[in-house]
Amino acid sequence: MSVVNTAIGTGHFDGLSKSSSSVSRALPFEKHLEWLRMMVLIREFEVRTMQAYQDRKIGGFCHVYIGQEAVAVGCIAATEHADPIVTAYRDHGHALARGMDPKYCMAEMFGRIGGCAKGKGGSMHMFDRDNNLFGGHGIVGAQTPLGTGLAFGTKYIDEVLNKGKNRQVTLCFLGDGALNQGALHEAMNLAGLLDVPVVYVVENNGYSMGTSIQRGTTMGDQIVAKAGAYGITARQIDGMDVLNVYDGMKEVIDEARETSRPAFVDMRTYRFKGHSMSDPRKYRSREEEEVYETGDPIAQLRDHMMEAGNLDEDAFKAMAKEVRSEVKESIKWAEASPPPSVDEELYRDVYVEAWGPYTGTTEPEIVRDAGSSKGEG
Amino acid sequence: MARIIEYRDALNEAMSEEMRRDERVFLLGEEVAEYDGAYKVSRGMLEEFGSRRIVDTPISESGFSGMAIGAAMIGLRPIVEFMSWSFSLVAADPILNNAPKMLYMSGGQYGCPIVFRGNDGAGGQLGSTHSWCVEGLFSNVPGLKMAIPAFPADAKGLLKSAIRDDDPVFFLESERLLAFSDDVPENEYVIPFGQALVRRPGTDCTLVSFGRPVHFCLEAAEELAKEGISCEVIDGRTIRPLDIDTIVASVKKTNYCVVVDQSWPFGSPGSEIASQVHQHCFDDLDNAVGRVHSADVPTPYATELEQAYLPNTHRICEAVRATTYNA
């Protein structure tokens, strides 16, 4: 029997240099504190999410972001709030980092009316119009043409409708598994051809479910070459250090905004937990995980801030405590939120103009103006 | 006032008028700009609207469909031209998983006002891969609307409605009808969705169809009239929403119904209409609803086989005779 090496090993971050810019260091320390708090919030939120899933309060598929917090937090900090964001199904971190109240995110997973999508989307489909988050998308790679289109759209609005200059950049997150989907390659070709200001951020955690990047992707150690083939500038960024993420992404995003061109980032990261809640992680070793856990993004920033004298142990503990109670509150709030009413919600939002339930096998009366309150039966 | 123009020019007028009216509307697809449209539907539009609004794309249906959906989510109103609906199958994920579900999955936050349009159906000896009638596949999906005009005036009026619609519309044209000329009103007009049209009044049997086979039904009705069978021909015009009211009213009068649908029989708009007619007219029917479809085989190439495969006047006449006990 041949032995297949299914793991990525311990060299996932080898050869990565830090971003040349260090604008993050010049920011007031309150900014760093804000990022630290957000990473702690995402971590705590995801821990509670796992518990709630095990308690069967959350159904379906559920993918937690633990280990990757610096990516969403650093990238989104480098955007303007009006810049659209679209992502894949491991999306709780992006929603929170974009400003979604944790209670709306939790209630969505609980399938409650208070959820960000009224309980109609679930864990993989977080949408937040107020925060310009265009989903959470469950099909691997599906969000990449959408991201290209969001950027095409903002540019069209700025330049064709408003006769001005392009002002916005779209961040399109994807996992390394999406590298192998045709949709991404079509999206990148279109973005390259049509000068679309979209930044594809590959959250390269080394595994698409249980398949290591070497097993699923040609040239897995130099995926930036794939963007190069579409005339798109690309770079690698160490995604475990939020300051480094911010520094690198600020440059990438500013340039995309200025040139109105696409960009591609191989953002190296590591997910500390399984692909989903049902993953026993047999494809990698505990030893490998322990190596990467030493690069915990929260510990990195915390230690940096402590060394700089901007944070002490007590302040960190106090913050963590505050975050714990915020997340606890979100769970209480989600539990208190009622499930969506079948009468009111089952048939609502199918069409902008509601036209009511399917009538083929019910009463011989055609419901033309069925509002949401006229549920079938 | 009306003038006689081709179906393709009616489509062109609808798009051009809506693009003049609303700068958010733009057209993208393969060969829509420099080439003037693979079937000349967008002839002259690049010249009028420029390359920012008439956008040539590479052969990437999945990519450009998804891109257009993203643009629709952020407030634009794209028209996506598929050279053929047969090519939309590689874009199944964006057009079925994103466009019609976005509003629901986002809890009402993001709509998707987009039109996908192109040639649907067989008849040109293109073989099976290029001869899809997608209405059978796609009308199954809630959240989308589907129009399938048979006449130039409807093509124009329905396409204008489609472009103004806030929901995704699948607009099914026919290559075999593009050069068909007929009256189209001079004045601006739109045709609302969900309103079938009685194309020919009759008393003995209701013929229900949509798209190109409507023309075969009209021919069959002419033929059957010579035998003393008076057919009422209903042109459904849209499949979603389906105007079952008009169909039911007709069947209650004629007591017989034959549905003519160019898609395959299993799980099709035809089977759905038959089921609904049985449901709504159970006590009025004097026989089970008859159905004429494309044969349940991949579309053949040879002319003789292809013509036998498609719904045609002969097969429709046979079905009406059988259904009305005149066989």
Descriptive labels:
heterodimer, A: about 375 residues, alpha/beta, Rossmann fold, 2 domains, six-stranded parallel sheet, two-stranded antiparallel sheet, 8 strands, about 10% strand, B: about 325 residues, five-stranded mixed sheet, 12 helices, globular
Q: Your description of this structure?
A:
The complex is a heterodimer of chains A (377) and B (327). Chain A is an alpha/beta fold and 377 residues long. Chain A has helices spanning 23-26, 29-54, 69-77, 92-97, 102-109, 143-161, 182-194, 213-216, 224-228, 242-259, 286-293, 297-307, 313-336, 342-345, and strands at 85-87, 133-136, 170-175, 198-204, 207-208, 211-212, 233-238, 263-268. Chain A has two domains: 23-340, Thiamin diphosphate (ThDP)-binding fold, Pyr/PP domains (Rossmann fold); 342-377, no CATH class. Chain A has a six-stranded parallel β-sheet with strand order 2-1-3-4-8-7, sandwiched between helices. A two-stranded antiparallel ribbon of chain A has the order 5-6. Chain A starts with 22 loop residues before the first helix and ends in a 32-residue tail after the last helix. The longest helix of chain B is centred in the N-terminal third of the chain and has 15 residues, at 7-21. Chain B folds into two domains: 2-185, Rossmann fold (3-Layer(aba) Sandwich), CATH 3.40.50.970; 197-323, Rossmann fold, CATH 3.40.50. Chain B is of the alpha/beta class and 327 residues long. In chain B, strands 3-2-4-5-7-6-12 form a seven-stranded mixed β-sheet, with helices on both faces. Chain B has a five-stranded mixed β-sheet with strand order 9-11-10-13-14, sandwiched between helices. In chain B, strand 6, helix 7 and strand 7 (169-173) form a beta-alpha-beta unit. Classes of the chains: A alpha/beta (377), B alpha/beta (327). Chains A and B meet through helix 6 and helix 7 of A and helix 3, helix 4, helix 5, helix 9 and helix 10 of B.
